[in-house]
Design brief:
The structure is a homodimer.
Chain A: E1 2-12, E2 22-30, E3 33-39, H1 40-46, E4 48-62, E5 64-69, H2 85-100, H3 103-119, E6 122-127, H4 132-142, E7 145-152, H5 163-177, E8 183-189, H6 197-210, E9 214-218, H7 222-232, H8 236-242, E10 250-254, H9 260-269, E11 272-275, H10 277-282, H11 290-295, E12 300-302, H12 315-330, H13 338-344, H14 347-352, E13 370-374, H15 386-392, E14 399-404, E15 407-411, E16 414-415, H16 420-436
Parallel strand pairs in A: 1-4, 5-6, 6-7, 7-8, 9-10, 10-11, 11-12
Antiparallel strand pairs in A: 1-2, 2-3, 4-13, 13-14, 14-15, 15-16
C-alpha cells in the first residue's frame, strides 16, 4: 500500500460508529486521506511509508470542529467582561466593531484565532463575521478548513449598507470559493432579531438552490425569545419554522429556553444545534438542555463562540465544560459521558456543517484531519481511560501535532503555516489603538 | 533595604483590600517574606538584591490555595467517571481504596498531586485523606504548604479501626507538626453521614482547645441532606449547629441545596464555605449558590476536590468554572467577576484555612508565596485586562515560577523539589496493579 505517512500511537479514538478506544494502532495517510487504521503489529509488516512517526504516550483523535465562532473577535478578548449580553453588545462590542472593523482587523484577528485554534487541535470552524472573504483567504493560506459565513444583518456597517448588499457580497464569496477544498461558504444571518423577514426568506431560497448551510444565533437568551414574541407574536423557533428554515441545513446556535414541543420539532426536522456552554454561562444567557436534546435524537455540536465572550477558542476545554454542565443541568451524572463530549466536538460538528462524509472521524477514505495529543503530563496520569483523560483533564498545550487534509500544520506544538511573532505584534498594535480610543 | 530576590513584572495582582492591577511593579523578597511591593522605577533605585529576575509579559499573583482536595486520589484519576456520587463512592472508589490505600499509595499519590499543583501555581492545599502523616511528610520535604486533615470516619480502614483510633492518630500528627512552618494540622471528620455524634462532639472540643480548623463535606447532594433528615430529623447544617460546630473554624465543603435561612445562619456564624464547582457538576451533586452566599457576606473559597471527581487539580481552571457557573446559576452576568474569582482562590482560601495573616495576598510582611504566570501566549493576547486574561483564558502551563516562603519550588515550569520521572513511574505502576485487580 502506498503511504505518505505512517503514525504509530499508543491509543486512537476514531469516533466511528462505536466508541472504541484502539490500543497500539497505526494510522496511514496517503494523498491527504486516511488510507488505513490498523493494529501496529500489522502496520509494521504491511505498510511502507515515505515517513514514519512514533508517538508514544499520545492519543490520535479526529480534528476538532468548532461549530460556532467569530474568529476576528479574538482581537477583543477581555475588552469587556462580566456584563449581560445586551449591555455587552450594545455598549461595548458593537461600538468597538463599528469603529475598528475593517479588512485589516479581520485579517489580523482571524490569524490570531487560527494560531490559537490550530495549537488547540481545531482543524475546522464555522465562522460568522464581517469581511468573510478576508477570513476565507487567510484560512486558505494557512491550510485551515472553514465554513465562511455569508453574514446578513439589517443594519449598515463598514462592510455593507443593507441586507441586499450583505447578500450580494456573500454571493461573491460563494462564487469565489464554491469548489475550494478547504473553504465552504454558508449563509450566516445573525439572528431573528437582527435580520428581518424578507432577507431571511431570500436566504432560505438561496440556501436551497446552492445547497449550503444556514448559520444563525437562535434562542440565546430569555430576552431574545421574549422580544421576538412581543414583536412578531411568535417565538423565534416558530418564526423560522413558518419561514421554512428549520431542517438539516439550519445550524442553530445557543438554543436555551427550549420548550418540550420545540425540542420535538427540532428532532422532527433534523435541525442542527450548536451548544456554546462557556459563552452561555459567561453572558448568563441560560442553559441549553443538551441531555434532553440528545435523548430526543437531535444532533448537538460544540462551539466556543467568539473570544470576547468565552474568552478562549479552546474546544478541548469546551468539551469538558459541556460534559460537566450537562450533568449539572440534567441532574444525571451519566449525562454526556466523555465519549459523547468528544463526539460532539468531532462527528456531530461535521454533521452540523454538512461535512460528515469528509471529516469528523478517523475512518478510511475520509480526509486526514488528525490531531495527536500527548497524555504523558502529570495531570493526565496515570492512565485508565484515554478518553476520560482527554476530556476531563487534558489541556490544549498537550496538542503536539495537527494535520489537515494530510498536510501537517502543527509540529511539536509549533505552527508551520503561521508566524506567531508577526501575529502577536499585530494583535498588540490593535489593542493599543482600541484601548486609547 | 536587604533583599534576597527582586522580581520585575509587567503586572501584579496583589489581592489586597483593593482589586487593583499594578502595572510595571516590582516585588521584593527577604527572609522568606514580602519586604516591598513598589513601582519598578522606584525599585531600580532603592533595592539592592542578591538576585534580580526580569519577567516581561508576566503577572504576579499570590500563591493559589486549594481549599479542598484528597491529594493521594490522583492515583485514581479517571478510574470511574460519569457516575453519581453514591455509585461512584460505594461501587468504585471505596472498594479500590479499601484494597490499595496504604502508606506507599499515599506517598506516591501525594507526590503526583504536588507535581500537578505546583505546576499549576497552587502553594497551599487543604487535604482530607488517610495516612495524613505521610502527606504531611511529603509536603514538608517538597516545600509545599498544607493543612493536613486529621481524618475521622466511623468505619474501619487499613489506617484505623474506629473513630477513637482515627482521633488518636490525628492527635499524634498534631503533636508532631504543631510548630511546623509549612504543615498545619486540621480536623477532618468526613461528613455528618460517615461520622456519628460522639466523635463530632469530641472534634468540636479538641478543635476549640487546639485552635485548629474543622474540615468537613457538608450538603454535597440532595440525597445526603434527605438521608440525614430522615435519620436524625434535622438537616446536616442544623445538626452541626446544634453540636456547636458552625463558626469561623468550620470549613464546610460543597454546600449545595441551601435554604435562605441556612445562608443567613452561615453568615451569622462566620462559617467558611468551600466551593468545588467542577466536582459538583461532574457528580451532578447540585449547585452551590455562590452569588447568594457572597451577597450574604459569607467567605467562599475554592477547591478542586480530588482528581477522581474533577479530574484535575487545576485551580486556575476552577476559578474560571466558578466565575462562569456563578453567572449561569444566578442569571447575572456580573456575578463573580474575574477579580472575585481570583480572590476566592487566594485571600478567601487563606481566611477559610485560618491563615489570612500569613498568606493569601501579596502584602508586605506576609510569607512570600508567589506565582508568576506568563500571559504572552496567543490565547491570552491581546492585553486589555490582566485579571480577565488570567481567569477567563490562561492555562496552567503558563505558570512559570512559584515560590513558597520565599523558596523557589518551580522554575521555568520545572519543579525544583520533586522528580517527575520517578513520580510518573510510580503512578504508572499503581495504575497497572489497580487495573489488573
Amino acid at each position: 500500500m502506498h503511504a505518505d505517512l505512517l503514525i504509530h500511537a499508543d491509543w486512537v479514538l476514531p469516533v466511528d460508529a462505536s466508541d472504541a478506544t484502539l490500543v497500539k494502532h497505526s494510522l496511514v495517510i496517503a494523498d491527504g486521506r486516511i488510507a488505513a487504521l490498523l493494529p501496529r503489529a500489522e502496520a509494521e509488516t504491511q505498510i511502507e511509508a515515505a515517513k514514519t512517526l512514533e508517538l508514544p504516550g499520545h492519543v490520535l483523535i479526529p480534528g476538532l470542529i468548532n461549530a460556532h465562532t467569530h474568529s476576528p473577535m479574538s482581537l477583543l478578548r477581555g475588552l469587556a467582561d462580566d456584563l449581560p449580553l445586551m449591555t455587552w453588545l450594545h455598549e461595548h462590542i458593537w461600538p468597538a466593531e463599528g469603529r475598528w472593523v475593517d479588512q485589516e482587523f479581520v485579517a489580523d484577528g482571524t490569524r490570531l484565532a487560527l494560531l490559537e485554534m490550530l495549537r488547540g487541535g481545531i482543524t475546522c470552524f464555522n465562522d460568522m463575521y464581517f469581511h468573510a472573504d478576508v477570513t476565507a483567504r487567510v484560512c486558505a493560506e494557512a491550510g485551515m478548513r472553514v465554513l465562511a459565513g455569508m453574514i446578513v444583518v439589517d443594519f449598515p456597517t463598514r462592510y455593507a449598507d443593507n441586507a441586499d448588499e450583505y447578500l450580494r457580497r456573500g454571493l461573491e464569496l460563494y462564487d469565489h470559493y464554491r469548489d475550494h477544498p478547504l473553504v465552504r461558504p454558508a449563509f450566516a444571518p445573525h439572528s431573528t432579531y437582527a435580520v428581518s423577514e424578507a432577507p431571511l426568506e431570500r436566504v432560505r431560497t438561496l440556501a436551497d438552490e446552492l445547497q449550503v448551510q444556514v448559520h444563525i444565533h437562535l434562542h440565546e437568551t430569555r430576552d431574545e425569545v421574549m422580544q421576538v414574541l412581543r414583536t412578531h407574536g411568535e417565538r423565534p423557533i416558530a418564526r423560522l419554522d413558518r419561514l421554512g428554515l428549520l431542517g438539516p441545513q439550519l445550524v442553530a446556535v445557543h438554543m436555551t429556553r427550549l420548550e418540550d414541543e420545540e425540542i420535538a420539532r427540532l428532532a422532527e426536522t433534523d435541525t442542527q444545534v450548536v451548544h456554546c456552554p462557556e459563552s452561555n454561562l459567561k453572558l448568563a444567557s441560560g442553559f441549553c438542555p443538551v441531555a434532553d436534546l440528545i435523548d430526543a435524537g437531535v444532533n448537538v455540536a460544540l462551539g466556543t463562540d467568539g473570544a470576547a465572550s468565552n474568552n478562549d477558542l479552546n474546544l478541548l476545554g469546551e468539551m469538558r465544560t459541556a460534559a460537566l454542565l450537562a450533568k449539572g443541568v440534567s441532574g444525571r451524572a451519566n449525562a454526556v459521558p466523555a465519549e459523547q463530549a468528544l463526539r460532539m466536538a468531532t462527528w456531530n460538528g461535521a454533521k452540523a456543517l454538512g461535512l460528515e462524509r469528509e471529516i469528523g472521524s478517523l475512518e478510511v477514505g475520509k480526509a486526514a484531519d488528525v490531531v495527536a495529543v500527548d497524555l504523558s503530563d502529570p495531570h493526565t496520569q496515570p492512565m485508565y481511560h484515554p478518553c476520560s483523560q482527554l476530556v476531563y483533564a487534558a489541556s490544549s498545550h498537550q496538542v503536539r501535532h495537527v494535520w489537515i487534509r494530510g498536510r501537517q500544520v502543527l509540529r511539536d506544538g509549533e505552527p508551520l503555516t503561521l508566524d506567531p511573532a508577526v501575529i502577536l505584534t499585530a494583535a498588540r498594535e490593535w489593542a493599543g489603538r482600541i484601548s486609547e480610543d
